[in-house]
Amino acid sequence: MEEELPLFCGESGKPVQATLSSLKMLDVGKWPIFSLCSEEELQLIRQACVFGSAGNEVLYTTVNDEIFVLGTNCCGCLGLGDVQSTIEPRRLDSLTGKKVACLSYGSGPHVVLATSEGEVFTWGHNAYSQLGNGTTNHGLVPCHISTNLSNKRVIEVACGSYHSLVLTSDGEVFAWGYNNSGQVGSGSTANQPIPRRVTGCLQNKVVVNIACGQMCSMAVVDTGEVYVWGYSGNGQLGLGGSGNQPTPCRVAALQGIRVQRAACGYAHTLVLTDEGQVYVWGANSYGQLGTGNKSNQPYPTPIIVEKDRIIEIAACHSTHTSAAKTQGGHVYMWGQCRGQSVVLPHLTHFSCTDDVFACFASPAVSWRLLTVEPDDHLTVAESLKREFDNPNTADLKFLVDGKYIYAHKVLLKIRCEHFRSSLEDHEDDIVEMSEFSYPVYRAFLEYLYTDSISLSPEEAVGLLDLATFYRENRLKKLCQQTIKQGICEENAIALLSAAVKYDAQDLEEFCFRFCINHLTMVTQTAGFAEMDHDLMKNFISKASRVGAFKN
To answer: What are the residue boundaries of the BTB domain, all occurrences included (predicted)?
Structure first.
């Protein structure tokens, strides 16, 4: 069935976008199903998921926290209490008051939804008990699933074609539904009618991410290992063979590689490592592995999307399409793309991976719950962003490295304690600055207008110095976030040194853990050889205490 870039390296000049907001701009109108909605209705949408065998069903939430559904309603998958299709949005009253945290869907389709409070609701197709309510009757309205989950808070959900997985806040995985190939992980091939904890090799593990292919399941644990179970006829488990796996099994070929996330297509798998590398395996008849050919791969195989670091991977069990986003913001796609087999990652003009599935996947579904930010008018914050470095409205300019940066005294005094005092009696309209470089100081001033930074990792180290000097704690967090995204074996010691120098304790711990996880390679770098003597002594002592040198 087939069914942060390196610090002090060449590519590091590309900007890394760092923001503490999870909202992103997204045009839901790119999915054909939304053409049934009016412009006014589209403006109200804040979350959405397009699903179904033809991309003809959608669930969305509005600015008022109401949930609406629209489409063909196959097997009652809209949850309205009937099987009537609807060409106009209808409100899903049975979930009134619930905030949607995550959502996934199967091929029937069936829907699994988790609320912000960690409750689980299911509805739709149920011939294989994939709703987890103990029956095989289709669910026409959302059903609260509490068996074995009553004291658990669910934080992630994933659906295969006819089975369901949920991940709890304490790192446990529960599964139910179709189990003909062992995809529920119970050790048998009997269908599982209610949630059952997936144990075996996962018994004492803390799972941080789950994913489902058509008939297989994946779990990434906090140590970076990947565990797989279910159908493997196309090698989608990455274990080297085509035999099914009825219980979780570690992907041994990834030994020494720390995986952060997994994504599953219909019968292929992608994983993203902590160094921004992508490994693939499984079915490849549409080029969905991105290896340059159409040969299936039974073992994890690294692919090069571009020299830039990958920060997001995307796939969906109902398609043979793959997508990835780089740290520099480039979006690539490969696999089945509007009927074409694209065998190598192809650079698109999109700004997010969601658009790949809206415009090129068959069917045109969404691979995750979409989050939408309104753009119908300029907010106060957006207006201020536009005024940064605007000579036409500025009443103050900074001279840095022979270049001017234009700003507004009142805004700087409102936003920064340092300027509140330094500009109090300042009557000149020019401030000369020699302590920091132009890119660093410009990024600092821009941050005061935008609440975000866009810098390469090495420049972020300089900005971290400035943030420490000016006691801008939130800016320190953003700098640390950018630097974390740029860590690699070659620059890990340099980043650790910077974290210690600027008393960035969270960043120091992150860099130390990265060094320990990649100890062999890190100790062979020039950075380690040139490490400050006292820092090296402290590093070796701390590494010894955490058992890094045990046989």
So the answer is: 394-457
Q: For residue range 435-469, what is the model confidence (pLDDT) as tens digits?
A: 999 999 999 999 999 999 988 777 888 898 899 88
CA quadruple 304, 308, 311, 313: dihedral sign: negative
| Residues 215, 283: Cα–Cα separation, whole Å | 13
Q: What is the DSSP letter of 11?
A: G
* pLDDT score recorded for residue 106: 97
What does R_g of the chain's alpha carbons equal in angstroms? 25
17 pLDDT exceeds 60? no
Q: How many C-beta atoms surround the C-beta of residue 10 within 10 A?
A: 9
H-assigned helices in 130-231: none
- As to burial, measured by CB atoms within 10 angstroms (0-12 exposed, 13-18 middle, 19+ buried), residue 344 is middle
Ramachandran assignment for 529, one of left (phi > 0), alpha (psi -120 to 50 degrees), beta (any other): alpha
Q: Is there a contact between 250 and 292 (Cβ–Cβ < 8 Å)? A: no
What torsion, rounded to 10 degrees, do the Cα atoms 135, 138, 143, 149 define? 40
**Cβ atoms of 95 and 62 closer than 8 Å:** no
* Helices within 219-361 (DSSP H only): 353-359
Return the closest-CA partner of residue 217 out of 163, 142, 282: 163
Do residues 42 and 370 touch, judged by C-beta distance below 8 A?
A: no
Ramachandran angles phi, psi of 475, nearest 5°: -65, -35
- Cβ(488)–Cβ(468) under 8 Å? no
- For tokens 């740290």, the residue is 327
pLDDT of residue 499: 87
Report the distance separating Cα 391 and Cα 174, nearest Å: 58
Interacting residues of 342 by C-beta distance below 8 A, sequence separation 6+: 287, 333, 334, 335, 336
Dist CA 481 CA 486 (whole Å): 9
In whole angstroms, what is the distance from residue 337 CA to residue 324 CA? Answer: 14
- 101 Cβ neighbours under 8 A, 6+ residues apart: 114, 115, 116, 118, 155
* Distance in angstroms (rounded) separating the CA atoms of residues 263 and 269: 6
pTM across the whole model: 0.72
440 with 405: CB under 8 angstroms? no
pLDDT tens digits for range 297-330: 999 999 998 888 999 999 999 999 999 999 989 9
In SS3 terms, 83-145 reads as CCCEEEEEECHHHCCCCEEEEEECCCCEEEEEECCCCEEEEECCCCCCCCCCCCCCEEEEEEC
Q: Output the CA angle 8-10-16, nearest 5 degrees.
A: 75
Q: How far is CA 182 from the centre of its chain?
A: 27
Residue in this structure with the two tokens 């590093």, named with its chain if needed: 539
Residue identified by tokens 């006014």 is 40
Rounded CA gap, 132 and 9, in Å? 51
Alpha-carbon span 3 to 9, nearest angstrom: 41
pLDDT tens digit string along 485-543? 888 999 999 999 988 988 888 889 999 999 999 999 999 999 999 999 999 999 999 99
